[in-house]
Design brief:
Layout: H1 3-20, E1 27-31, H2 39-50, E2 56-60, H3 63-72, E3 77-81, E4 90-104, E5 113-115, E6 123-127, H4 132-143, E7 150-154, H5 158-166, E8 172-175, E9 186-193, E10 196-197, E11 199-206, H6 215-225, H7 227-231
Parallel strand pairs: 1-2, 1-3, 5-9, 6-7
Antiparallel strand pairs: 3-11, 4-8, 4-9, 4-11, 9-10
Length: 236
């Protein structure tokens, strides 16, 4: 219960420190997925190209916690998976990402596409942060309940999780934004359901009353990069 208060105090300290060093308040962005590849990485790179002195503060975490921090004003915007969680303010639909599986290089599942049913006979490595809880829920629904899955939770970062995969301790479902991490002995393969590729959709969440001067340029960039999605959203 105390952790959000401590985290907010830490971010306030970082903001004050940035201003003392001659900078302006950074745009505080909550994220739940990897930046090693994919749309989020490219969006942040484009923001830096368009605004030379753009300053951001990335906040990693799970979806429910990050939504709470947006609501409390501790962060300005969160880029999260769509659906689930309670949110009654602004939402901008964004991109979708394929679900992939990190497997040991010499594993029988190391082939172009893996069926979700084939994961049930393997130890599945998950972390307790990021999108892993949603991947677990997705797989549990497909498998008919979490009891049929052999899940091993690891309290480590993505690079360490992939090291465990490479060492043969199991397989790890991820989103394609994580495929930029290169780990010896690990291959990334698409996860397919009954109707083809399995995907999760993303969206941006923020409060209408947020006054960060960097928020609007960032949202404008998102709308420009994903016009078809933003036109059908609830962002106004």
């Amino acid at each position: 219960m105390a952790r959000p208060i401590v985290d907010e105090a830490d971010r306030l300290f970082l903001t004050i420190k940035t201003r003392r060093n001659g900078g302006r308040r950074p745009l505080r962005i909550g994220i739940c997925s990897s930046l090693s590849a994919g749309n989020l990485r490219e969006t942040l790179a484009e923001l830096c190209r368009q605004i030379a002195d753009a300053d951001i503060l990335l906040v990693d975490g799970a979806k429910v916690g990050l939504l709470g921090e947006v609501a409390a004003g501790a962060i300005d915007v969160a880029i999260l998976t769509s659906g689930g969680g309670k949110w009654n303010d602004r939402v901008l639909p964004l991109w979708g990402e394929r679900v992939v599986v990190a497997v040991p290089e010499h594993h029988p599942l190391n082939r172009p596409a893996i069926k979700w049913r084939e994961l049930c006979d393997n130890r599945i490595l998950l972390t307790r942060s990021g999108v892993d809880s949603e991947l677990e829920q997705l797989l549990s629904v497909k498998a008919g309940g979490s009891d049929s899955l052999r899940i091993s939770y690891q309290d480590v970062s993505l690079d360490r999780l992939l090291s465990l995969v490479g060492a043969g301790y199991g397989v790890a479902p991820l989103l394609e934004g994580a495929v930029g991490f290169v780990c010896p002995g690990v291959a990334h393969r698409e996860l397919h359901g009954d109707c083809g590729q399995m995907r999760l959709q993303f969206a941006a969440y923020w409060k209408e009353t947020n006054s960060s001067p960097m928020l609007q340029p960032f949202l404008d960039l998102l709308r420009a990069r994903y016009p078809d999605l933003s036109a059908s959203g609830t962002s106004g």
